[in-house]
Design goal:
Blueprint: E1 2-8, E2 15-16, E3 20-21, E4 40-48, E5 54-56, E6 60-63, E7 71-73, E8 80-84, E9 89-96, E10 101-106, E11 111-115, E12 122-130, E13 135-141
Antiparallel strand pairs: 1-2, 1-3, 1-4, 4-5, 4-6, 7-8, 8-11, 9-10, 9-12, 12-13
Length: 142
Amino acid sequence: MAHYPERSQDGKQFNTLQTLNALNGEEQMYQYTDASPRANNYYRIRSEDQDGHIRYSAVQRLQFATKNSANIYPNPSYGTCTLSGLQNYNTLMVYDLSGRLVYTHPIAQDHLELNTSAWTRGSYFIKLVGEQEPQSLRLEVE
C-alpha cells in the first residue's frame, strides 16, 4: 500500500505532493510537511492498495497566515529598481495615481528589474497578483 498526500487550491483539483510507502504493521503514523503551502489549502490522503483499490481521506481545509514579503529598492527609483520576494506572484501591474494601468509584466522569478527611465516623475502603485493575497507597493519615480 502507498499513501499520497495531495493538495488543492479549490478543493476539487488535487495534486500529489509525495509518495509515502506503507510501513509494516496495522496502525502506523505517517507524517508529511508541506514545504510551500499557499494561503488557502485543501489536503487529503489518497491510499492505494496493491490490488489497485483507491481510498481517499476526508478533505481538510487549512489556511496559513501569509506575510507580504515583496520589496522594492531603491525607492525612489532613478531609472531602475528591483522588486524581490516575488515567489508567490505571477503578474506585476503598475498604475499611476489616476488609477490608469501603465505597465504590466509576467513574473517568473523571485526578483525583477524594472526600468522606470521612461516613466513620468511621480508616484505609482505596483500591484502583485498570484497564489497569495494581492500585494500593493508604492513606488516613487524621480
